[in-house]
Amino acid sequence: MQHFKTINCLDIGTSKITSIIGQYPENETKINVVGVASVPAVGFKKGQIINLEQASKTITECIESSERMAGFQINHAFISLTAPHFESFNSKGVTAISGASGEISSVDIDRAIEAAKAISLPANKEIVHVIPRLFTVDGQEGVIDPIGMSGVRLEVETHLILASTPALKNLNKCLEEIGIKVDALAYSGLTSAKACLSETETELGVALVDIGGSNTTITIFQESSPVFSGVIPLGANNITNDLAIGLRLPLQESEKIKIKLKAYADKKGFEDEIELTHLGILSEDKKKISFSTTVNGIIKARLEEIFGFIFDQIEDNGFKNSIPAGIVLTGGGSQTILAKEVCADVIPLPVRIADPPRLGGLVDDITNPAFSSTIGTILYFQTHKINPKNNSSNKKMKVSFDGIFGRLKGFIEPLLP
């Protein structure tokens, strides 16, 4: 009889919360989605809890919907999260080789990692990801796996991703109150990357830009590992707000225009006068909108601002000339009309829009860029093979070790805070 493993994930975005339940045979990796649900992020603002009771109801509703589809209950989940409080540092750790033989062991790697983590953290911040990138053994750079090599001095370059301790505690409290134990937490820039980027892109150098409702995450990769992770508190909701003001329409109708305008233009071509009924909108006060005013006068201006902030981050951190694979756009905001074109105009690099990979099962409604982080979350944690049985009793959200160090994870579990 074939045995199946189950993986439960909760993706907490800025505009929606998504619960996804997947199953796969023990000896295979192909995931079959058996339950999925997505609900508006009521009780949250920009990915952070602003009303604990409402947030608990939102997550409960989301999880229960996915449970009904799957046909069974869950009591633990992997979490993907984005919020403006995420930030990153690159840090080096150095240690002397301790063994009498001079051979590098897992103990030496542990000590180098600990040295890299020994930085002065900002107030109320904690490390949620430690991502070892490359090792240096006695001046020999670019070592991927130093175990068994001989040397005197071991250095490790790491990428550290930090998050707000109070915000994580509030989320953990919310989940505990509804009976969901946290297996592990991931920054959504990493989960989206799992779904959207190729090995070639991460090796060459690439910037993944995930445009959500209220936040835009930027994750830059070089040599197959992240070197910059950050969040800009601007997103597709800002475009909706601009449309509501500029067109004098309610937010709900403005959101429909933003979502449907690209598909309409692709199908119908350029028409300056657009009947709102063609976009599925019935309005007593307004019957038509101007395409040029809506797109060039409102949407384009906000997109230019968003991509201008992104380019500033890339330039200010010195990556303008070191990401030849360019910009990969994803997230619901990437489906906005002119998003790719404006990005290419503002940022002088190649641009493409990424869809997440197609999984088996109930995925028709989530195989689009708006759910890249959701699908990436289930792929990310399946790859990392973190065992929920070992984590479910841990009340503190677990730090994650990623990248080239993933296969050495078994050696460093004791370092998890």
Question: Could you explain the architecture of this structure?
Answer:
The model is unreliable at 387-396 and 403-417 (pLDDT under 50). The chain has helices at residues 52-70, 106-117, 165-177, 188-196, 199-204, 236-247, 251-268, 291-316, 339-346, 372-384, 388-391, 409-412; strands spanning 4-12, 16-25, 32-40, 44-45, 48-49, 76-81, 87-96, 125-137, 140-143, 153-164, 181-187, 206-211, 216-222, 225-232, 273-275, 288-290, 327-330, 351-353, 360-361, 400-401. The strands form five sheets. A six-stranded mixed sheet has the order 11-6-1-2-3-19, with helices on both faces. Strands 7, 8, 9, 10 and 20 form a five-stranded mixed sheet that branches. Strand 4 and strand 5 form a beta hairpin. Helix 4 crosses helix 10 (372-384). The protein has 417 residues and is of the alpha/beta class. It folds into three domains: 4-84 and 165-190 and 357-403, 2-Layer Sandwich (Nucleotidyltransferase, domain 5), CATH 3.30.420.40; 87-161, Dna Ligase, domain 1, CATH 3.30.1490; 198-353, 2-Layer Sandwich (Nucleotidyltransferase, domain 5). The chain starts with a strand and ends in a 5-residue tail after the last helix. The protein is built from twelve helices and 20 strands. InterPro entries: ATPase_NBD (IPR043129), Cell_div_FtsA (IPR020823), FtsA/MreB (IPR050696), SHS2_FtsA (IPR003494). Keywords: Cell cycle, Cell division, Cell membrane, Membrane. Pfam families: FtsA (PF14450), SHS2_FTSA (PF02491). Cell division protein that is involved in the assembly of the Z ring. May serve as a membrane anchor for the Z ring. It is found in: Cell membrane.
